[in-house]
């Protein structure tokens, strides 16, 4: 942990002392972070609240070096020694922040049927390494803010490629080891991402909608009809909602689980989507590819919440799956939900989305400080003592949750020390004279929207505030 803290301090290029002490205050403060300025009251933050905001607004972080440091820490692995990565988008909602730039419409889930909403904010794509078994721990590796109108599949493919390249450079993966498994949810185009990462040692596992239609391979040998014609590229349809089109499954497994009862998985080999020259494939050069994979249908006897039990459809980029591969895929997909616990920790305990920052670059700096704090919690996991509340159950030393490890981090901080230098005495600035008005109002920005042509959306002039015609003459009698 000391080596990581030294590398973290070296990656802070400007306002390094203020940013490093802010990260320490985030780790040592007791209880959830409610406001950003409360961290300035922590003993670990020896500077004033002005230095706190100056560090976020004017500081600089060597993100590339910090990413390499995150890739070099010990990472969890699956039972076969494989790295399992999960990619998901978590929004930082800013619905009323009209002076914030680079906002996009973020999809949010509401309680109840049809309660989903699109709320303005900053969406962040986060990559995390998953552990085995039920746990609230993940290893965060990367985070990028999605620009308005960004191609999610293309951005995710580039992000995953760079993460895996850093893992290979750090010695986390070597030739001859199992390929890295990347798990995606239903909002991603898994076949396209697998096509973009075909040259990497990566396997893609993604969830599919239950109304999808895939295509089977062309029967071999193919018999030419009497009227002639070229051989077809696609076989018969595989309709998820029509069992008559499924045919015989290539593999069927049944596993007894504690929470879900009997889990039954069926797999069909060499299924692919039929691509058309529109949307992401409109500018593709050459013939459209045939992206074959394995479709897995998972059903369970019950749900822990008692909700409606629906089948889950998965698409794996590998072919020729056996029973062991099928079980490995659906078990890895269930572990993807561990990243939701990490998002809840970042937002509710570490206060990731609490600050009301105006600049998106400052939001990126704060995000990287939160990721660095979470990495230090992982490294302190075997070292922290269980400072449990009187009403909490005792936990094994290596079974502490991230929030309980954070309670004892202040004791570890006293032993590890800090590379930040002591603050220098200073006086506050004069500020704005009393009674004077702000002559430089902040610029207002529209929420980023992109048209079908790729151009950014601009609100019409007659829709903007202050452009409506006003009556200047006397009212009519």
From TrEMBL:
Residues 404-413, 460-471 have a biased composition (Basic residues). This is Transposase. Residues 8-273 form the Transposase IS701-like DDE domain. Residues 393-477 are annotated as: Disordered.
């Amino acid at each position: 942990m000391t080596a990581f803290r030294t590398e973290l301090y070296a990656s802070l290029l400007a306002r390094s002392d203020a940013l490093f002490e802010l990260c320490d205050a985030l780790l040592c403060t007791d209880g959830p972070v409610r406001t950003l300025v409360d961290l300035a009251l922590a003993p670990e933050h020896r500077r004033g609240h002005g230095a706190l905001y100056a560090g976020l607004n004017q500081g600089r972080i060597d993100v590339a070096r910090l990413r390499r440091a995150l890739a070099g820490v010990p990472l969890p692995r699956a039972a076969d020694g494989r790295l399992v990565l999960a990619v998901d988008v978590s929004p930082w909602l800013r619905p009323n922040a009209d002076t914030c730039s680079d906002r996009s419409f973020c999809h949010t889930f509401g309680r109840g049927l049809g309660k989903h909403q699109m709320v303005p904010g900053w969406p962040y794509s986060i990559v995390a390494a998953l552990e085995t078994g039920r746990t609230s721990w993940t290893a965060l590796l990367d985070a990028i803010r999605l620009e308005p109108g960004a191609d999610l599949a293309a951005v995710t493919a580039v992000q995953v490629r760079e993460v895996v390249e850093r893992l290979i450079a750090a010695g986390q993966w070597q030739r001859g080891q199992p390929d890295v498994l990347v798990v995606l949810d239903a909002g991603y185009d898994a076949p396209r991402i697998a096509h973009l990462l075909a040259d990497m040692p990566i396997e893609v596992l993604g969830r599919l909608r239950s109304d999808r239609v895939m295509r089977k391979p062309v029967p071999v040998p193919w018999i030419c009809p009497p009227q002639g014609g070229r051989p077809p590229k696609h076989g018969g349809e595989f309709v998820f909602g029509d069992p008559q089109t499924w045919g015989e499954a290539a593999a069927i497994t049944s596993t007894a689980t504690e929470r879900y009862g009997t889990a039954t998985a069926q797999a069909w080999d060499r299924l692919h989507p039929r691509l058309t020259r529109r949307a992401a494939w409109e500018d593709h050069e050459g013939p459209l590819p045939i992206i074959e994979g394995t479709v897995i249908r998972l059903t369970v006897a019950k749900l822990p919440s008692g909700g409606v039990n629906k089948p889950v459809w998965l698409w794996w980029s590998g072919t020729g799956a056996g029973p062991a591969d099928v079980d490995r895929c659906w078990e890895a997909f269930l572990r993807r939900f561990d990243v939701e616990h990490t998002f809840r920790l970042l937002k509710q305990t570490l206060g990731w989305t609490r600050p009301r920052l105006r600049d998106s670059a400052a939001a990126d700096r704060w995000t990287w400080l939160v990721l660095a704090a979470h990495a230090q919690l992982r490294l302190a996991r075997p070292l922290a003592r269980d400072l449990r509340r009187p009403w909490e159950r005792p936990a094994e030393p290596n079974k502490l949750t991230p929030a309980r490890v954070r309670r004892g981090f202040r004791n570890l901080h006293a032993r590890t020390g800090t590379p930040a230098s002591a603050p220098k005495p200073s006086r506050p600035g004069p500020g704005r004279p009393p009674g004077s008005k702000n002559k430089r109002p902040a610029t207002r920005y529209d929420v980023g929207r992109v048209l079908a042509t790729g151009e950014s959306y601009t609100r019409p002039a007659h829709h903007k505030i202050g452009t409506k015609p006003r009556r200047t003459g006397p009212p009519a009698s």
